Amino acid sequence: MEEALCPKIGMEFQSEDKAYNFYNRYGLVVGFSVRKDYLNKDKDGVVTSRRYTCCKEGFKPRYEGDVKPKRTRAETKTGCEAKMGIILNRETMKYQVRDLVIEHNHILHISECAHMMRSQRKVSISQGAQAEIANVAGISLKQSHELMGKEAGGLGNIGYTRDDLKRYLRTKRERGLKYGEAGAMLQYFEEQKLENPSFFHAEQLDCEEQITNIFWADASMLMDYTYFGDVITFDTTYKTNKEYRPLGVFVGFNQFRQLVIFGATLLYDETIESFKWVFGTFVEAVCGRHPKTIFTDQDAAMAAAISAVMPSTYHGLCTFHIRVNFMKHLGNYYKDGSNLPYRFGECMYEIEDENEFIMAWDAMLKEHKLETNEWLCGIYACRKKWAKCFMKGAWTAGMRSTQLSESLNASIKNYLKLDHDLVEFFKHFDRVVDEKRYNELRAEYHSRQKLPMLGLQQTPVLIQAACIYSPCMFVAFQNEYDECTTMVILDQKHTTMHVEYSVSHYDGGRARRLILNPITKDITCSCNLFEQEGILCSHALKVYDMVGTKFIPDQYVTKRWTKKARSGGSVDCKGREISSDPSLSISHRYRLLAPEMVRLATRAAMSEAATKLVSSAMSELSKRVEMLFCGEIDEITQNSASMDLCKGIQVQNAAGHFVTPTGLKKRRGRKTKKVLRSWVDRFHR
């Protein structure tokens, strides 16, 4: 060992910390852990003397009780007398070594175990930041520790153990919750709002000023609603947070028929009042624009809230949940070749005439003697929300169920755990949202990278559709166009303003009635495909082909299905234009400046005189930039200071007054490890 690393009597140090660091570095080389022993201070609080000892100094106190403990820890102390004592020299104001013992009475550690010694274990700021990023990304603690070991060339080189990393993250999380979960949640929302002013959040308080229901939507969610919020689904899921609060998500789909999220809520309970608040807050967040259609499951509280808050919105019931309920109440009819499930499915999906539906329903009940079945009577009472013949006038964009929400729920349960606190919950929920948005980005890339497959019939209308529609909608349109080649026109009648056609499949089937305005090219079909899904049906394409219209009229190109579905701006509830990521403008300016700076530095480095010139100019330029930002820096500092006062964040209560929440209202009931599930989950299980 180098002589400079060995402590000696009379050595001096500028500060107490430098003395400790020196002795600790000596302990690392020799193979023992250092412990801070006693210290003395004067009346001014200045440390006058201190002693550092070996971690094995002293002895473990003996247990003196009558009953011996069941578990005892192994002995670690051996009474080692190795130490280094320092005293403050008042003349030089330096610390001097006065007491020193080098010898140890125990076996010293080998160098390979040095990172396990307590005084040597420390998680640095950079390592802690990397661990936090890994934690937010969903990487387990074990995997994160192993990854850092691989990067450092071995676990012994990172300077800490897995338990140290675990304690670091736990301490970081506890500090973030110093004002409680409610305060941490409000602080998280305020941070999001500082990053993007269009971020929307709202909390409902009860009479005790405790937070019950929570709603939030970021800027991208509000922008997505502007473009694709005509049809939405709302569903709740469990097993997402340790408070067992139902998580409700407003979901729709984009031009690629992929899932997009419009907002989310954490509910205290699933009552009519809670749903009224959630739907009312959602409408407020999207500037009062009600969706045309909303699909939910068969929840009476949801139905009552929707009719009260969004009376102009068509409320549809999820056909998937109806079929599951049918299996639950009438599952025995799946046996012995009964045709009841097929008759019920025919009423739901195939029958298009209301009178025909009523006749088929009555015949089904009479055949199976189910006239008094309570569930069938209840589902028949709300037939206008699920039967195809009663939904012909509703805009559904091809949606009939909440399967989008169900698929999102499956993804959420893969990311979220019951032991996550609220802030962790929001961060991991953002991971789910980011994954869905990245899927849309991939679809956008493939739509620009891959050309549509036109097949053999490269007609003008197909070429036009390939240029304007997204890939999935072009496939749907192409299928309708291929189907129109099998259609025949049975009859046509001319009136003063319109021409009426009767179109059917060449081998029979239901005849469709179409009315065409020859001047404006407006057309309506009795199948109502365009009115429901926004795409021309094969019957209308047949008529257009016969009259010589070789392109899709502009009024029948639905923007939400086109490649330019996201064109146009959107504003938030405060009237501000929404920007999904304000930092993108910063990145754009950086990409403009960085290449110029690099080229200038590369050129100036060729000459010493040029280097001095650029260096002096850059120094002056830096001062001017700092002066320019002086006002903005003061404003940011003020905002950060106000954010730190988390207890000052206020929420509007039911009376319209701004108050400070007292906390997050806890759900009453059993606190067990058993997961609360909806009736659908319980039935499947």
Automatic annotation (TrEMBL):
<keyword id="KW-0479">Metal-binding</keyword>
<feature type="domain" description="SWIM-type">
    <location>
        <begin position="501"/>
        <end position="548"/>
    </location>
</feature>
<keyword id="KW-0862">Zinc</keyword>
<dbReference type="Pfam" id="PF04434">
    <property type="entry name" value="SWIM"/>
</dbReference>
<dbReference type="InterPro" id="IPR018289">
    <property type="entry name" value="MULE_transposase_dom"/>
</dbReference>
<dbReference type="GO" id="GO:0008270">
    <property type="term" value="F:zinc ion binding"/>
</dbReference>
<protein>
    <submittedName>
        <fullName>Protein FAR1-RELATED SEQUENCE 5-like</fullName>
    </submittedName>
</protein>
<dbReference type="Pfam" id="PF03101">
    <property type="entry name" value="FAR1"/>
</dbReference>
<dbReference type="InterPro" id="IPR004330">
    <property type="entry name" value="FAR1_DNA_bnd_dom"/>
</dbReference>
<dbReference type="InterPro" id="IPR006564">
    <property type="entry name" value="Znf_PMZ"/>
</dbReference>
<dbReference type="Pfam" id="PF10551">
    <property type="entry name" value="MULE"/>
</dbReference>
<dbReference type="InterPro" id="IPR007527">
    <property type="entry name" value="Znf_SWIM"/>
</dbReference>
<keyword id="KW-0863">Zinc-finger</keyword>
